[in-house]
Amino acid sequence: MRETSSNTLNDLHRYDIALNSWTELTGTTGRSRHTAIWDESGDRMIVFGGLDSSSTRLGSLLIYDRATDAWSTPAATGPAAREGHVAVWDPSSPSARMCCGLSDTTTLGDLWSYDGAWTQLSPSGSITARRYASAVWDPAAQAMLGFGGRGSSLLDSLFLYSSTADSWSEYTVSGPGAQEQGAP
C-alpha cells in the first residue's frame, strides 16, 4: 500500500530473508499516508487512516491476519479520519498507541489506544500538535518517543508519551534539524 505519483496502490508483499525472495499476499483497499504497525504476539498488521485514491482522509481500521492471509475491518468507533499520524505497538499492554496527524484542516495532538476497541487517552502534560512526525516504542522506558513533524512550521522537538506515568513531555534538543517524515 503505497503511493507513486497519482496512483494509490493496494498491494502487500512479504520478504523472506532466508530465500531472498518476495511473495505477494492478499491486498486491500488502496491508501497512502497511513500507519501500519506489527503486533508480533497476534501475528497481525494493524493499519489505520491515511488517504484513499481520491485524497479523502480515512478513519477506518484494517487488520491483516498473517495466518489466514485475510483482512478484516473491525466496526470500531474511534479517532477522526486523518493522515500523517504516528502509531506504535506496545507489546506489554498489548495495544497500539496512535497520535497526531492532519484531520480536515486541523493538525492534531490527541492520543488514542487500540486493544480491540479505541480509547482516547487524556495524559497529563501536552505536546505541540503535529503531522508527519516519526515515532518508535521504547520497551525499556514503556514510552512512545517521537521526533519532528510539522505544526504551524517544521518542528525539531522530541516528544514522549510515558505509559507508566500517563504523561506527555516535549524536549527541544540540539542535533538533527527540524524535519518531517524522517526517522527519529
From TrEMBL:
Keywords: Kelch repeat, Repeat. Coiled coil: none annotated. It holds the Pfam family Kelch_KLHDC2_KLHL20_DRC7. This is DRC7 protein. The lineage of its organism: Eukaryota, Sar, Alveolata, Dinophyceae, Suessiales.
